[in-house]
Amino acid sequence: MHIGLIGLGKMGFNMRARIRAAGIDVTGYDRNPDVTDVSSLKELVKVLPTPRTIWVMVPAGEVTDGVITELCSLMDTGDLIIDGGNSRFTEDQKHGAQLAEKGIHFVDCGVSGGVWGLANGYGLMAGGEQEHVEAALPIFDALRPEGERAESFVHVGDIGAGHYAKMVHNGIEYGLMQSYAEGYELLMAKDIIKDVPGTFAAWQKGTVVRSWLLDLMVKALEEDPDLAKIAGYVEDSGEGRWTIEEAISNGVPAPAITAALFARFASRQEDSPAMKMVSALRNQFGGHAVKPSGHSDKPAPPAGS
Questions:
Q1: Residue ranges making up the domain that contains 94
Q2: Is residue 239 part of a domain?
Q3: Tens digit of pLDDT for each residue in 197-209?
């Protein structure tokens, strides 16, 4: 088997290596000349045997749109494109319809595993027609961890279903990380707690909150026990927002995921306009004291730090 892979960034580069290690030939394309195997998409399509299979691993949105549109003009009936990035499921449906007009098949695949995937394998969630997903099974088997396929790969449903499942996966991830983080802050704030990193380390085996995220949390605290090298500023890549929008559209309560996303928004504010207004209103109706702008009372260093 010989496939193409577009996008050799943090994940794509490792995925190319893992697929090759499984005995599948991979020709990769990236705009970075230091990592690419070919100089253009046109050359990539030319070197692949027919029917071609090309895995796209580029940023969601305009970049993915551009790559798929160009591939649509270069590939032929019976070829297969797999979008393994973080596209929104509605974009998958649009791309699937666009490619179907030329007889090109499409599968979307949510991929979880991050920078650890090369060594540990990736969790995979595919959407598309059964025959197209089955045609790509050797690739999925190369990327996933060893063991039962059902423990790390699922054909979720129709086109868009793979990325929909990955979207929900990432929403759950938001809530899990926020819960661990709040527990960390509470332990740091209590004076009777003397070993915060050790507490989390002791939860790694035998407890109901053990997880790979907890293992990574312990690793982070080993490297920087007080997190002194990291600012409390957290970005979001979109999937959390999409999860909440879908929860609203489907009438599904999602308070934990929603709160986790809003906590990230709050992390980006040096001074909250909303909290300024709350302070102003308390002063107006009750004469409560306010702190002048620019005034800062720094709290005492947290216990356990």
A1: 2-158
A2: yes
A3: 999 999 999 999 9
